[in-house]
């Protein structure tokens, strides 16, 4: 990516956005009738699908059941056609395993698991098209799917990626911006309390800049929350109108 200017002298990014401007986010809930909850989200050209089953009885060995709360089971995968590279992406590859673990940690922090002892909640997410911010798109899609399933959470979980270029934080990174290297932060936040559910950094960043990057990431997650909340409210209105017919 040598020679690529990520931020112009006028303060615009490669795709014409301002540094803290999000890509266009579109979301839909209830896309699969067979699941307890489901959602589809687009963040720019990144497209993610989330499906939720449960709470239900633990499948397999009963000894895995937690007596005081539900077990959250997550699986992250990428469709073989999600990137330009046509290679097989097994569920067990290192990146998918890492993303699966992050999702599990994120949603264990948000779902009120103590309401469903000795049960299991399954969250499956898949990237249909990858163009940066894959983990964040999956978190946002899964949040909508969990809400669609009627599973209580402490708060929405909203995620956004943030990079740092020329002393300036860039929020909601595209694939080109991610590929350019440099420090990047993926953050999942519970927006009302501003609690951080997950923070992952992929490169070293001087501590003098950390506060600025974290602040930009939290603000971006608040902006994501505004969009997700609107999607939920529109879905509720739609469902209510259909029920009234």
Strand and helix map with partners:
Elements: E1 25-29, E2 37-43, E3 46-57, E4 71-78, H1 94-110, E5 119-129, H2 134-148, E6 158-165, E7 168-171, H3 175-179, E8 184-190, E9 195-201, H4 207-244
Helix pairs in contact: 1-2, 2-4
What would your notes on this structure say?
- The protein has 245 residues and is of the alpha+beta class.
- It has a single domain (25-244), classed as Ribosomal Protein S5, domain 2 (2-Layer Sandwich), CATH 3.30.230.70.
- It contains four helices and nine strands.
- It has a five-stranded mixed beta sheet with strand order 1-2-3-5-4.
- Helix 1 (94-110) packs across helix 2 and helix 2 (134-148) runs parallel beside helix 4 (207-244).
- It is globular, with a radius of gyration of 18 Å.
- The protein starts with 24 loop residues before the first strand and ends with a helix.
Record keyword descriptors for this entry:
single chain, 4 helices, alpha+beta, five-stranded mixed sheet, Ribosomal Protein S5, domain 2, 245 residues
